[in-house]
Amino acid sequence: MNVKLKKGLIVSMLLIACFAFSPAPTYQIALLKYSGGGDWYANLETSLPNLIKFCNENLKTNIKTEQAIVEVGSPDIFNYPFLHMTGHGNVVFNSQETDNLRNYLIGGGFLHISDNYGIDKFIRPQMKKVFPEIEFIELPFSHPIYHQKYDFANGLPKIHEHDGTNAQGFGLIYQGRLVCFYDYECDLGDGWESFEVHKDSPETHQKALRMGANIIQYVLMGGENTAKK
């Protein structure tokens, strides 16, 4: 069996086993480190740690409090069921990284991309290399990702204003499964940061954390089946 495919199957089997036999599995989520000069580390200090804390307190998840950092081309990518990616600038995936990320995603992994204002023109062509056969589509407001523990009837909340445009949530759907969620013109990851970073209001901070929790619940807790009706 192809080694990359085997790794993907292992990811799927581990995820199935983890969620089938434990009501509160322990896992770790990771920040994706990439090349090209873009600031993959833009929200390094408090963004994911705050989201993890919020999910553990409000969703009763058991996510390790320390985020991991993993490179796109590393075999370690298969250790994490959820990857978060952000930044403002250039992104470049080489052929090995492209293959690695594709096999991770089709094998059961998930990628959340948060546009930190400026990544859009760089990330789209790179993800097209990963999935040349599919396109990002805007998810309808009825999609379960918006209707987990927290209900967002109008889709993504607008966290930071830049161009006066609406926040949009895009997805890559591979063989019927959402493998990548991309928040655009939203700054969701910024909204998870501690107050001293962006001086967001408590209300804005809560909206961002709640939407982030919805993504976590959808991906890691069978959210396709537990969404509010």
Topology, pairings included?
Elements: H1 3-21, E1 26-27, E2 30-33, H2 47-58, E3 62-63, E4 68-71, E5 82-87, H3 95-106, E6 110-115, H4 120-130, E7 137-138, E8 168-174, E9 177-184, H5 188-191, H6 195-198, H7 202-220, H8 223-226
Parallel strand pairs: 1-3, 2-4, 2-5, 5-6, 6-9
Antiparallel strand pairs: 7-8, 8-9
Helix pairs in contact: 1-3, 2-7, 3-4
Describe the structure.
The chain has 229 residues and is α/β, with parallel strands linked by helices. It has one domain (3-226): Domain of unknown function DUF4159 (Rossmann fold). Helices cover 37% and strands 18% of the residues. The strands form two sheets. A seven-stranded mixed sheet has the order 4-2-5-6-9-8-7. Strand 5, helix 3 and strand 6 (110-115) form a beta-alpha-beta unit. Helix 2 packs across helix 7 and helix 3 packs across helix 4 (120-130). The longest helix has 19 residues, at 3-21. The chain is globular and about 40 Å long. The N and C termini lie far apart (41 Å). Mean pLDDT is 87; it is low at 1-6 and 16-22.
Would you summarize the structure shown here?
With 229 residues, this protein is of the alpha/beta class. It is 37% helix and 18% strand.
Mean pLDDT over the full residue set: 87
**What portion of residues belong to β-strands?**
15-25%
Structural class: alpha/beta
What's the helical proportion of residues? 25-40%
CATH topology: Rossmann fold
Number of domains: 1
* Number of E-state strands: 9
Strand adjacency order, main sheet: 4-2-5-6-9-8-7
CATH class: Alpha Beta
Taking Cα atoms only, what radius of gyration do you get, to the nearest Å?
16 Å
Number of helices: 8
Low-confidence stretches: 1-6, 16-22
Main β sheet profile: 7 strands, mixed
What gap, in angstroms, lies between the N and C termini? Answer: 41 Å
- By CATH, the superfamily comes out as Domain of unknown function DUF4159
- The CATH architecture would be 3-Layer(aba) Sandwich
Order of helices and strands: HEEHEEEHEHEEEHHHH
